[in-house]
Each structure stands twice: as structure tokens, then as C-alpha cells.
Amino acid sequence: MTLTIPTWLTLARIALIPVLVAIYYLDYRWSNVAATVVFVAAAATDWLDGWIARRYRQFSKFGAFLDPVADKLMVSTALVITVQHHHTVWMALWASVIIGREIAVSALREWMAELGQRAKVAVALVGKIKTTVQMIALGFLLYREPLLGIPVFVVGEWLLAAAAILTLWSGFEYVRAAWPALRADDEKSL
């Protein structure tokens, strides 16, 4: 197996997860800034590895598998530490919706791959918008302090709520796209 530059960037994103957690829990005034920088750097590698893979045609099966895993690990970790620090019903609900959808869509993609129809559940535009809103929300929530009079944490909460709604919408779109194949497979087994 040859490791491409995009795959190395994905591996770096995974390696940043324990760094994010350690920095977030440091008892220094700047730990929120450092945690936000680590998270934003990880989010940037997500965009960069995709761009490099497309631009220079550096695709690999391992990279295609690892990239969404790295994204889900980083987002789930950021959600868990945010909920632990700001444990409200709404924060827990939004985090549960986002993490639950990620698990469900991963299972759906695996099922569709077994049916030979993985292309029917490819990433759609609403999923890309959801990811963007989610990353911005998490960056704001990790930063958590007002900045230039802007209540960054409150903006992050609202963006996370929007990301959760987009998460439900995109999850519905995946199920809708897969539904004919799932019904056909179900009818075959009868």
C-alpha cells in the first residue's frame, strides 16, 4: 500500500485528535484558542486532502476509507468535549443527532456497498453544506469566549442547531436515495 499525500494528511488529522483533547483540558487561559487552532487545522486538512487528491489524482482505496473515518472521529470528539464542558439538554440533543446520523449513514453506505449500489448514497450538496456549518459551529464552540463583542459561543450554539437540522435533512436524503435498493433487496429475500 502506497501512502499518498492526501492519506498522510488524513492520518495527521487522526493524530490531532488526542492533541485537541489534551489542549482543550489544559488549565491555561489560552487553551481554548489553541484547541480552536488545532480543530481548524484538522478541518483544513480535510479540505486540503480532498483538493490534492482531485487535483493530482492521488486516490487510493485506503484513503477513500480513512477520510470519512477521520472526519467522524474528529467531529465526534469535538462534540463530546463540548457537551462535557457545556452540558445542556440542547447541546446533548444536537450532538446526539449529529453523531447518530453519522453512525446510521455509515451503516447505510456499508449496506449499499454490499448490494453493489454504493454510488446511490454518494455525498450530496446538502451534506457538504452540513459539514461546513458543523465545522464552523464547532470552531466557535471550542473557542467559547466573546470576540470583538460577538457572543461566539451563542453563535456556535445556533450554528450547531442548524447543522443538526441539516444533518437530519441530509440523512433523509441518503435514506430516500437508498430506499428503492433497500426495498428491492427486501423483496428478494421473501
UniProtKB/TrEMBL annotation:
Primary enzyme class: transferase
Location of this chain's protein in the cell: Membrane
InterPro entries: CDP-alcohol_PTase-I, CDP-OH_P_trans, CDP-OH_PTrfase_TM_dom, CDP_ALCOHOL_P_TRANSF_CS, Phosphatidylglycerol_P_synth
Pathway: Phospholipid metabolism; phosphatidylglycerol biosynthesis; phosphatidylglycerol from CDP-diacylglycerol: step 1/2
EC annotation from Swiss-Prot or TrEMBL: 2.7.8.5
GO molecular function: CDP-diacylglycerol-glycerol-3-phosphate 3-phosphatidyltransferase activity; small molecule binding
Cofactor(s) recorded in Swiss-Prot or TrEMBL: Mn(2+)
Catalysed reactions listed for this entry: a CDP-1,2-diacyl-sn-glycerol + sn-glycerol 3-phosphate = a 1,2-diacyl-sn-glycero-3-phospho-(1'-sn-glycero-3'-phosphate) + CMP + H(+)
Entry GO CC: cytoplasm; plasma membrane
Membrane topology classification: Multi-pass membrane protein
UniProt keywords, alphabetically: Lipid biosynthesis, Lipid metabolism, Membrane, Phospholipid biosynthesis, Phospholipid metabolism, Transferase, Transmembrane, Transmembrane helix
Any GO BP annotation: glycerophospholipid biosynthetic process
TM ranges: 7-26, 121-142, 148-169
Family designation: Belongs to the CDP-alcohol phosphatidyltransferase class-I family.
Protein name per UniProt: CDP-diacylglycerol--glycerol-3-phosphate 3-phosphatidyltransferase
Native source species: Thermomonas fusca
